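Obj: model holo form, ligand = flavin-adenine dinucleotide.
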Amino acid sequence: MQKASSPFVVLPQEVMDLPHPHEFFSDARRLEERLRQVVQGEIRFDEASRALYATDASNYRQVPIGLVVPRTIDDVIATVAACREFGAPVLSRGGGTSLAGQCCNVAVVLDFSKYLRNVTWLDPSRRLAHVEPGIVLDALRNEAEKHELTFAPDPATHSRCTLGGMIGNNSCGVHALMGGKTVDNIEELDILLYDGTRMTVGRTSEEELAAFCAIDTRNLSASVIPTSLAVSQATTSISFYPRTDSMWRVLS
Ligand SMILES: Cc1cc2nc3c(=O)[nH]c(=O)nc-3n(C[C@H](O)[C@H](O)[C@H](O)COP(=O)(O)OP(=O)(O)OC[C@H]3O[C@@H](n4cnc5c(N)ncnc54)[C@H](O)[C@@H]3O)c2cc1C
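Output (holo C-alpha cells):
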C-alpha cells in the first residue's frame, strides 16, 4: 500500500539550523536596557512575549526583536527615539487582527491596545471625537451611541480592532457603504515619524501632497506610514447613524 505523503513541507536540517531573522539584530540586549531606562510602560523581550507577538490573524510568522506596551504618548516618543539610536525598526500594533501579516515583523512592536485607549473628548454637536489610537472600535461606538451617533466603518472584528489599526488598514465593513471607509472619517491625525518629527496632519488633496513631497525628501506618501509611523491620537468624525428598521434591512 502506498504511504500517504505528509501535507506539511519538511525543511532540510541545514535550513532549520539557520538563525531566525531577529537573531541578526545583535543590539537587542542593549536596546532593552535603554528602553527600561526611558519608558514607563512595559518592556517585554522574553521569549514567551516575543512568541505571542510573532503573528497576527494571518499565517505569517516573524519573531519580533522585542515588545513595548506604552502607557503614554511620551513612552511612544521615547521608544521610537531609542530604536532610532540602535537602528531598530518599529512596528505599531492594535488588535493584531490583520489578515496579511501587517503586524508581524523583525521589529520592536508597540502595542497600543492596553493603555492608550481613551476617548479624550466627544462633541456630538460637531460630530467629532478625539481618541487615543488603541481604543477598540466598539468602545468608541458605545460612547457615540449615547448621542445616537456612530463611527460608520465597522469591520467584522469591531469588538477587537482598534482605531489605529483601522487607520493603518483603511478598514471598511458593511456600514462603510453608508458612511465611507476609515480614511473618509478621519479629521486629523497626530503622527510621529521615525526621525522624531511629530506633526498634525489633516485632509490633503493629491496636489497638496505632491507639492509637499516635492520639498520633503522623506517621501511621506509612500514609505513612512506603514512601518515608521505611530498614530498617537486620532480625531475621528463620527457619521450620523439613523438606527431605523429599514436601514438594517437595506444593509443586512
Ligand atoms: C475574521 C476577520 C474579519 C475581518 N473583517 C474585516 C472587515 O469586515 N472589514 C475590514 O476592513 N477588515 C476586516 N478584517 C481585517 C482587520 O480586522 C481590520 O483591518 C481591523 O480594522 C484591523 O484593526 P487592528 O486594530 O486589529 O489592526 P492591527 O492588525 O493591529 O494593525 C493594522 C495595521 O495598522 C498599523 N497600526 C496599528 N496601530 C497603529 C498606530 N497606532 N499607528 C500606526 N499604525 C498602526 C499596524 O502596523 C498594521 O499595519 C477582518 C479580520 C478578521 C480576522
